[in-house]
Amino acid sequence: MSDILYLTSMEPRSGKSAVALGLLDLLAADVEKIAVFRPVVPDSNQPDSNQPDPIVELARQRYDLEIPEHDAVAFTYSTAAELMETSGPQKLIEAIVDHAARLRERYDFVLCVGTDFTGPSPAVELDLNADLAANLGAPVIQVLSGHSRTAEAVSTALREGAAVLKTHGCEVLATIVNRAGPEHEGLAAPPVYVIPDLPVLAALTVAEVVAALDGTLLSGDGPALQREVDSYLAGSAYLQTVLPLLKDGMLLVSSGDRIDLAVGVAAAAVSPDLPTPAGIVLTVGHVPDERGLKLLEPSGVPVIAVKADTYTTLHRLEGLTGQLRAESARKVAAALGAFADHVDTEALRKRIQLAKPDVVTPHMFSAQLIARARADKRTIVLPEGDDDRILLAAEELTQRGVADLVLLGNVEQITAKATQLGTDVTNVRIIDPLTSPWRDTFAKTYAELRAHRGVTPEMAYDVVGDVSYFGTMLVHAGEVDGMVSGAAHTTAHTIRPALEVIRTLPDVSLVSSAFLMCLPTKVLVFADCAVVPDPDAAQLADIAVCAAETAVKFGVEPRIAMVSYSTGQSGSGVDVDKVRAATEIVGARHPELPLAGPIQYDAAVDPTVGAAKLPGNPVAGHATVLIFPDLNTGNTTYKAVQRAASAIAVGPVLQGLRRPVNDLSRGCTVADIVNTVAITAVQAQGATR
C-alpha cells in the first residue's frame, strides 16, 4: 500500500485546491489518519502572519485532521530561498524530505500538495516539485489548466509536463485537466481526466470581499457572508435606473451617502419578484445613521463600509479570485461533485494502491456512505421544502450527485426563498401537493387503504394535501424511492403516514429505529433508541433482526448483543427474562447470526470483560449491534456514549418499513440532512428483501 502521494500543478491558477479536495474525499473513505503537507507556500500563508495556508486549513476543518498548521507547512518562499542561497538546493530538498518522513511515521497517509507557482519562475518550481516527488518516493498526480487554451495547447503542455516528471524519475499516476471546456473532452483517456471549468470556484464570497477591502460589516452575517458574488454594479444613478440593472448575486458598490440606493437594493432581496443582491458596499467612509441601518437590517443582505471611493473599490476587486474554503458549502459541494463525476475514483484508488482498513472513522463512514449513494442514485422526497436547511442541503446533495430530489410546497415560495438564500435548486423538482394533479389519484388510493377506518374520499382529499402524507404517497406509488422529513415536523408526523400507507415488511411486526454510532475507530448499531417505548420479547427480537439487516446495509458485520443488566444466567426477573426470551427467538429464526444475550454493555464491547463474563462467546467483547431492552435504556445509552466518547450519532434510521422513510431531528444541521438522505438512498437500493 502506498502511504504518500504528490499533487503538483504545472502552472498558476490550475484549480489545484479543488483537486486536492477531491483526493482528500477519496482518501477519507479508506484512511484513518491523513496528513496534508505543503513543502513550500507563499509568505502570506505562514502561521505568524495570521493567514494559514488555504489548502491546509480547508483539509483540517473539513476532515478534522489532527495535523497542526506548523507541521503541515515546511517552508515559505522566502525561507526556502534563504536556505538555498546559504546551503544550496539539495539542502532544501533534504529538509523537506526529513519533514515528510516525520509525518509518515505519525500518519497513515501523507498528501503532499506542491507549490502554488507564485514564486520567481514557473520552470524552477516545476523542477522543484519533480525533485521533491522523486526524493520522497511519491507517485505524482499532475494538474493542468484548460482555461482559455485550445485542445492542442493542452496536449502539448501535457507532454511537456510528463517529460519533466519522467526526467526526474517520477511515476505519474494520473493527469487532471482542470477548468476545461467542451473542446478538451477528447483528452479524457485514463489516466487523463478532464474536469469542467466551474466559475463558482473562482468567485469571491461576500466574506472575502470584506477581507479584500479591509471593510467593516455593518449588517448581515451568517450564511449570507458565504454567498458568491457573480457581478458588480456601480451605484451612481437614481434608484429607478439602478433597479432594472440588478441581478441575482450582484454586489452593489455605491457612495455611502446614497442610502436611497442601499435601502432600495436591500428591499429587492425581500421581494419574490426582484433579484437578490449578494451584498452592498458603501464607499468613501460614510456610514448610515442608526435609522438608515434599521432600514437595511431586515433584508439580511450584508452591508459593508469601506474608506476608499467607488472607483478605487471596484478597481481593487477587479481580477481578485476566491479561495476554496471549508465554510463555503456551495464551492465545496461543486468541487466534490465535479471530481466524482469526471474522475474514475475507483480506478484511481487502485492506482494509488489503497488498502482496505481495519478501522472505520466517522469521516471514512461518511465518505463511504456518499460514495454508495452516488453509485446507484435514487430519488428522495423532502416534504419540508421551505425550510432553509433543507434548501441548503438540497443544493449540496444535487451538486455532489448523491440523490435526485423532490421538494414539496408552494413552488413560488420555495423558489423565492432559495433565491434569497443564494442556493441553486434549478435541478430539483418542486411539487405543490395542493395543486398537483396527483392529489386526486392519491386521495382515491388513500381512501381505499383506510376505508376500514372510515376514511371517505372527501376526507382523503384533505389528508393527502398535507406534505407528509403527499410525500408518503409518492413513495407508495413508486414515484420516488424514499422520504426524509422531520426538520420542521414531529416524529409522529413523519412515521404515522408511513405506518398507514407503506406499512411494515411481511415478517416484521413493528417499525423501530437504529442509530449508527460512529466512534473514533469503528461503527456500532444501537437499537431501538427512538421509537418503541417498551417492546415485548417478540418485538425485541424483530428489532434485533432489523438492526442486523441495517448493519449489513451500511457495511457493519452484525454481531448482536441483547443488552441487559445481567450477563448469561447470572440474573433473573421480568426485564432480564424478556431479553433472554428475545435472544432465544432471534437464535431460532436466524441461527446464522452471531448472538449473545442477555449481556451487560461492558461485556458486549470490552474484550477483557467479555472474556471474563461470557468466556468462549464470539460476540462478547466484540459486539457491533447492541439491542436495548426498552426506549429509556436505549435513548439514555446512545446519548451518554455520544457525549462521553465524542461519537457521531447518525440517525435515527427507521427500519421495518417496506420502503425507506427516515426522520430528522428538528435541531438537525445541513450535514445531518445530507447524511440522512444518503442513508435513505442506500436503504432504497435494497428496499425489497
UniProtKB/TrEMBL annotation:
Keyword Acyltransferase set for record: yes
SUPFAM superfamilies listed in its UniProt record: HprK N-terminal domain-like, Isocitrate/Isopropylmalate dehydrogenase-like, P-loop containing nucleoside triphosphate hydrolases
Subcellular location: Cytoplasm
Nuclease found in the keyword field: no
Catalyzed reactions per annotation: acetyl-CoA + phosphate = acetyl phosphate + CoA
Pfam families cross-referenced by the UniProt entry: AAA_26 (PF13500), DRTGG (PF07085), PTA_PTB (PF01515)
Domain named Phosphate acetyl/butaryl transferase: residues: 365-681
Functional pathway: Metabolic intermediate biosynthesis; acetyl-CoA biosynthesis; acetyl-CoA from acetate: step 2/2
Entry note about domains: The N-terminal region seems to be important for proper quaternary structure. The C-terminal region contains the substrate-binding site.
Protein function: Involved in acetate metabolism.
Name of the protein in its database record: Phosphate acetyltransferase
